[in-house]
Write the structure tokens for this entry.
Amino acid sequence: MTFKDLGLIEPILKALDEQGYTQPTPIQEQSIPILLKGDDLLGCAQTGTGKTAAFSIPIIQQLVNAGVDTKGKRRVKALVVTPTRELAIQISDNFKAYAKHTDIKRTVIYGGVKQGSQVNALRGGVDVLIATPGRLLDLMQQGFITLQHIEYFILDEADQMLDMGFIHDIKKIIAKLPVKRQSLFFSATMAKEIVELAGKILSSSPQRVTIQPKQATAEKVEQAIYFVQKVDKPKLLVHLLQENPSSSCLVFSRTKHGADKIVRILAKAKIQAAAIHGNKSQNQRQKALNDFKDGKLKVLIATDIAARGIDVEDLALVINYDLPNVPETYVHRIGRTGRASASGIALSFCNGEEKPYLKDIQKLINQSIPVVDNHPFPDDGTEVFVKAPQQQRRPKTERGHSGGNRKGNGGNTGGNNKKRFGAKRN
Ligand code: AMP
């Protein structure tokens, strides 16, 4: 299947060619024909699957086919609402790239910055608006934006929207949309409240596309586990980063506080790093992300929510400083490396308390993750737990003890125990 087979118009084909895309990803192959027909879409997919192109390309094509008003005042006909500034900018960049050889104009608005330049761009007239919910409502209330001409509405990353408490904003936005429109709804997960929200936005019989990146992602990424005591995790991280000075590395921390602490630990070891999480300002987050994308900053520490918007080409290494207690989160995290066609490495630290999480992860991905046992800070089984973390499901027999077997991996070993990750790579 090629993009041409999907019936795309020449200016878009040319832009995709310039992007170096040779063939559609599964979500593009399935969604583009549905969207070109004008049907509503419920997409269960996350970033990294090619989702943005899957929705932006057919919208550009429909706008071009309907005729762009290059002389009169343009009205916003397509609205994409996404939870974070990082995602909004990324989507806007994608629209720009795919619409490069058309007359479509787009702009992006988000909070945390002055509104002046955003208002100016809106005054100039745009066809496509990409927005975060708060700033959108703000500018609507001030009369700079009307949604009455919207023909295409896309709600992106719905689960993250709900996580971030945007549900009321979303409801206010959808109340202002024209009834006659094409609606697209994307979420990485489909919990009950997400499905309910989708019901309020989509027509009664939307087409559904589900893209499970689980197996593909897990297979593409080279993974390894390091059993290590909690107290030794900082030293192990410093060791691995010193061994890989030239790789871009994304380090995951379960908490915001933990992410800041890792930055301080690395600073002491003269490793420059920055953290992105919900407590950082938009400007701090964007600067850290830009520096990381440009290669000026080699190490970025992120929490799961903040990392959703990260799309970095050639991200070689992901380190799970903490194992997530939700196994799907592991798959999302390691999906930050090995995106599209590249392959990557994901290393995970696991202390005694995290072994049940490892077990759940291996069950989900249906793989035993190889264990690295020849690192300088192996867990010798003497770790003392003060307090069990929430949602702990560790059986009593493992309490306070990792079993003294450094090669055990939570009950499902296999793989290559001798394999050494983090050793010098090109
Ligand atoms: P997304 O899921 O939209 O965040 O896209 C993930 C990454 O895949 C982005 O860097 C896109 O530029 C890239 N991408 C999207 N579609 C394709 C394609 N058909 N071929 C190669 N790369 C793609």
Observations:
- The chain has a mean pLDDT of 85.
- The longest helix spans residues 51-66.
- Residues 21, 24-25, 28, 47-53, 311, 339-340 surround adenosine monophosphate (CB under 6 Å).
- The longest strand covers residues 182-187.
